[in-house]
Amino acid sequence: MYRVFEALDELVTIVEEARSVPMTSGCVVPRGDVLELLDEVRDSYPSELDDAQDVLDHRDELVNKAKTEADQSLSSARSEADKTSSEARAEAEKMLADARERADEIIAQARSEAEQTINNARREYEEYVARAQSESDRMVQAGRAAYDQSLHEGRSEQARLVSETEVVQQSQHEARRLVEEAKEEAERLRGDCDAYVDSRLADFEELLGRTLRTVGKGRQQLRRPISAPFDYEEWQPSENGSPAGEH
Questions:
Q1: Is the pLDDT of residue 27 over 70?
Q2: Phi, psi of 23 (to 5 degrees)
Q3: Distance of alpha carbon 160 from alpha carbon 233, whole angstroms
Q4: Which of 24, 118, 144, 244 has its CA 20 to 30 Å from the CA of residue 186?
Q5: Over the chain, what is the mean pLDDT?
Q6: For residue 105, with 0-12 CB atoms within 10 Å meaning exposed, 13-18 middle and 19 or more buried, which class applies?
Q7: How high is the pLDDT of residue 26?
């Protein structure tokens, strides 16, 4: 490119220094020198100009080719997007079906464990009541036996000591005291039994409440659009009968 500029400068100098033709605006220039400089200018132009001219000559062809390739790329991208969308939809439906199946399993397991807990509590209640009733009967019988024995001893003592009224009264008072203590002990045992059964039933009622709330949350999650799967592993009954994570 430097030689091009240099040749152009020489051409300008030749034209400026050329002799003028009288009565005209023309001039006389050495043809050989001018043609030689023009050839140098033409030879010095970079090949990129020819390439650029070729690009201009084939512009429409290149534009159409680029447009065709762009349409093909767009069609391929749309096809790939449709395929990806279909696969994602199928995967989402599969995940939803698995979540529903898991929820049904957890609900069935919760119902089974609830029924088992109810049966265990009822059986334990009946056993405890039976033991308490047996202990109460034993205590009453022991009180009656002690009363009868004290009464018998009192009568015997009364027969032997007719004049000692105070001893007889003390014996009767002791006998009545033993009977009252036996009755109070029986009532206390029955009250302890009722309190124990009531506390166990309260614990079971709380367990049922948590179970129903967990089932309700699972059903609400199934009705919502898919976002984040419900963590059903969070509700797993521990060894003491309560859901995992609750103390």
A1: yes
A2: 65, 10
A3: 81
A4: 118
A5: 77
A6: exposed
A7: 80
Q: Counting Cβ atoms within 10 Å, is residue 110 exposed (0-12), middle (13-18) or buried (19+)?
A: buried
Place of tokens 């105070």: 166
User: Terminus-to-terminus CA distance in the chain, angstroms?
Assistant: 88
Q: What pLDDT was estimated at residue 2?
A: 66
pLDDT score for 47 = 64
Cα–Cα distance between 19 and 188 in angstroms, integer?
Answer: 145
Question: Letter for the amino acid at 233?
Answer: E
Phi-psi region of 223 (alpha: psi -120 to 50; beta: other; left: phi over 0): alpha
Q: What mean pLDDT comes out for the span 162-191?
A: 77
CB 116 within 8 A of CB 208: no
Length of the chain: 247
